[in-house]
Amino acid sequence: MTVLESQYYNINRITLLICGLWPYQSTKFRYVRAIFILGVFVTFVIYQLTTFIVAECTINLVTKVLSIVLPMFVCILKHGAFFYNNQKMRHLTNLMWYHWTIIQDEQEVAILEKYTKFSKRFTIYMLHFFVLGMFILIIGHMLPIILDVIEPLNSSRPRHFYILMECFIDEEKYFFWLLLHTIVTISTALMMIISVGTMLMSYTFHACAMFKIASYRIGDAMTETSVETSSLQKDCAICQKIINGVRIHRKAIEFANLIVSDVRKPLFVMLSVGMISLALNLFQVFAALSANNINELFTTFIFVTTQICYLYAGNYAGQIITDHYSKVFNTTYDSRWYTAPLRAQRLLLFIMQRTSKNFSFVLGGIFVISLKGFSTVASMSISYFTVIYSIISR
Length: 394
Fold this sequence. Notes:
Pfam families: 7tm_6 (PF02949). Keywords: Cell membrane, Membrane, Olfaction, Receptor, Sensory transduction, Transducer, Transmembrane, Transmembrane helix. The protein is mostly helical. It has helices spanning 3-8, 10-19, 27-49, 51-54, 59-84, 86-102, 106-150, 175-221, 224-227, 232-259, 264-290, 294-334, 342-355, 371-392, and strands at 362-363, 367-368. The protein has 14 helices and 2 strands, in the order H-H-H-H-H-H-H-H-H-H-H-H-H-E-E-H. The protein starts with a helix and ends with a helix.
């Protein structure tokens, strides 16, 4: 483990190790964990789908089952996509270590440390959300048992799962075993989502730091003290600073493109399925509120909150990449480029032409990852929710 890894990315390393996605772990253990996680997800989905065998297939039943099955399908797809692209994650991580070795200026190192601390705090906040979500889920299912201890009745309160499943066994008798399987499945799914999401966010913050360093180098080259006097030696120094800024800018673009280069199609499929899943879970929240079922509301609220936060975080990552890329153009344009040597002006013109075009992540050739994209997904999910509600309420 490198000093940088232990200082800033140790939490990411531990979470990815749990899910079998850390690119530097043993291949044997990685496959063992992957098989275990896949087995947990598949059995949980099967238990959900078997409810169609023993229960009458209605629209309400379909929406309730799919509201859980679709998020599990997204988890399976996400785990598979990043498991088979493990070498790409390793390459990205190696590039991060390499970028730290080529940055020597104190101000630039401070920029890297600032953005790396951002990613570390984001990871910690997501883990807190994970603990809170699991606590609510466990309390929601254990509430009848807790109430029997606090305020007992003549008979025990009924215990049942608010996540529909059919295991062809007595749920009352094997309640704790089924609850354990449910907790393991959902905690594994949340941990996998958080581990992958936080690592992608760490890559995103690193790319933003590299764009910020490029802006800093160009701005530093065009400071007032640098251009107020002219000499051959100073002109060469200015050009060299600009060239160094262009090199870092190119490295930042290459790094940013690598983040989603091999997973654009899986991410687009996950986005589409997640949008439908969000609409179904919104309907389940509305149904729980209408039935005044507080315990079921807790469970569905976890799924809705998780999906909204994840969609927002993913689109926010794309937005800050675009903003930091545009900042390079703004820094160049706002500098005193007109007082720079002619050779430096040509270099700055090249940079402005290159950065005048927006940089963004595009999925499926149609969806741009940005805050505007998040609002589009949210509005479409709400539209699907209203359609589902109008069909069922007829």
